Amino acid sequence: MVSTVIKNWDNKTWLSSNEYIKSFNKFLIRHIKVNSNSKILDIGCGRGKILGNLSSNLKLKNKPLGIDIIAHKDRDKRIKFKKISASSFFLKKNYKFDLILIKQTIHLFSLKQIKKLLDLSKKNLNQNGKIFIFALDTNKNKLPTFDLMKKKLTKSLKRDKKILKFISEIYSIKKKRRFTYNVKISKKDYLRMIKERYISTLLTLSEEEISKGIKEINSKYSNFLRFTDKLICIVL
Ligand SMILES: C[S@@+](CC[C@H](N)C(=O)[O-])C[C@H]1O[C@@H](n2cnc3c(N)ncnc32)[C@H](O)[C@@H]1O
Asked: Which atom of ligand 1 is nearest to the CA of 67?
């Protein structure tokens, strides 16, 4: 696994805003048959806000389970949380889920780990259960970037493409969809996100590289950034 301590992805960003979560969960509910009896797992759940909102929307009888290697103090209280790596989670117990969500996390694993994780996930699905994998849309990505960030992101998106191809070669993909969200964010807030290294492509940059990038974004963009956050969704 690549170096990964993503602490600020959903730390007061559009990705943890009520509007984003509502729109994301509306998309999910439209595409999978789930109800109050459903058992749901989110692998790499971060602060668990998506799962918490899903739990309220569906009035879930069983608290949904979120797993992550980081236990955030401000995580959503409507979920059951386990601080554990996805690679060792299933080995502990036999669980059965109706929905396993892997959102913007699959790229943090090696191909070998992905195969193991998806094999185990499939084994731990109920009869009509589904695995929903979301990743950045590799072709039409519009995230605001500075030069070095763009280079890293392009490299990472190439790898994502390889991952999606790999998955489609070993499993039968039941559906492929796109989720899009129109982001409006002040430059000030976006610069804070860059400073806090919200995305994995920024994790390995030096302080100097981040400062240079902040200056670049400051001069390249106006006070408000508007762009479309595009995700590919594959269903197994
Ligand atoms: C980009 S964030 C996505 C968070 C959330 N799924 C979302 O979309 O809002 C990736 C998450 O994966 C978690 N993660 C990284 N490696 C992991 C592992 N081996 N097992 C479980 N979670 C992991 C990170 O801590 C982080 O919370």
From this structure: 21
